[in-house]
Amino acid sequence: MSRRILIVGAGQSGLHLAHGLQGAGYDVTVMTAQKPEEIRTSLPSVTQFSLPLAREVEQRLGLDFYADLAPRIHGVHLELYPPGYPGSMTVSGAFASEAIAVDRRLKQADWLEYLQDRGAKAIFAGCTVSDLAYFPSMFDLVVVATGGGMLGELFPDTDELRGVGGHRRVITQVLCEGIEPSPSGADYAEVISSPLGRILIAPILSPYGPAHSVCVMDAPGGSLDGSHLRPQRGHPDPEAVTSWIVSALGEHFPEVYPRVAGASPIDAHAALVTTVRPHVRKPVAALAGGHVLGLADAVVHTDPLAGQGWAVSSLSASVYLTRILDHGDAPFTPEWMEETFTAAWQSGVSAADRLSSALHSMWEPGAPPHLAEVLAAAATIPTVADRFIGGLADPADYEKWLYEPETARAYIAAVTRPHSDATPT
């Protein structure tokens, strides 16, 4: 007997899980507010990356549609502005294998259409809490894969897994043309990091072809807070957002300004101004009609500056998929749901959350002093730079060497000693 599963939300994680279950013969229904044609003409979301591990998962599911279309991202060019440091410090490192970024509107619409073509059901409607309470009686399992609005509030924040849940971040972003390549090359994303805020400039596949995403991140009220560009009604003006970003970079980061001075938005929907709050939430919500399980953004939302959003989504969906398939015909109890989230957390989601916390606090007064030593080494030693940057593709590697002063200093010492004396791990 085919088990009936409802997935509320059609983003990276929800569609990943839906395709995996559909391919295994499950009776899958996806509920989402927008049809594919509406998604294609909506606003972009915060730019995310299919890092190497996420791309492997997409390839296994037959969802890597963009391998020959999207600009390759081979690494990151990092411009650091440490407090009290004269000028900037540069760290340029490569991934072990390439990453890509695809406009959410393109990817989500394509994946959703493909899912329907394969025979899955789609319900195009908003989902209220009262709707959700009814669904456990109709389906064997209900998975909530959207973290916004009232549905996200069903999953309360945890204390023990909170990470950096206490802070908010304003994201001001535009997809544009006319950006000059990173100093490390056209196939590198560029990150500018300072106490003022963070800026990400990355190649991306837009609905019109290759473009760039320019994303400015700051705390509410900070120097790089673009909240004033968000109208009370309607969507932000891409020309105004682009002008403000270019002006802000010219004022605060004159070394970067020449590379963005010629930027122009790709279309009338190219801009986004939003506020996000990283969180870790309890994974199971008890409703009048039964229990529902939260997935990815519904329960774990990492800080966008860590670039781990789609990685967490793909990893979580992969773990959930395996556990559902292995569960056979047994009931999906609240205990099983808790264990499923714990399995995802322990498989690498916690490492992404810890990275999010570490990068958020990098310029805080209480930041660990050894992090400055690591950055200084990465600025001059390519091996350290590649490991520091490459860890973004697998944050579990940071647990082995970065966070504790003793292991970080031992690694740097091993790298700088003659090869015959020590081999870094």
From TrEMBL:
Any Pfam family matching the protein: Smoa_sbd
Annotated protein name in UniProt: 2-polyprenyl-6-methoxyphenol hydroxylase-like FAD-dependent oxidoreductase
The Styrene monooxygenase StyA putative substrate binding domain, residue ranges: 147-259
InterPro entries assigned to the protein according to its UniProt record, in alphabetical order: FAD/NAD-bd_sf (IPR036188), StyA_sbd (IPR041654)
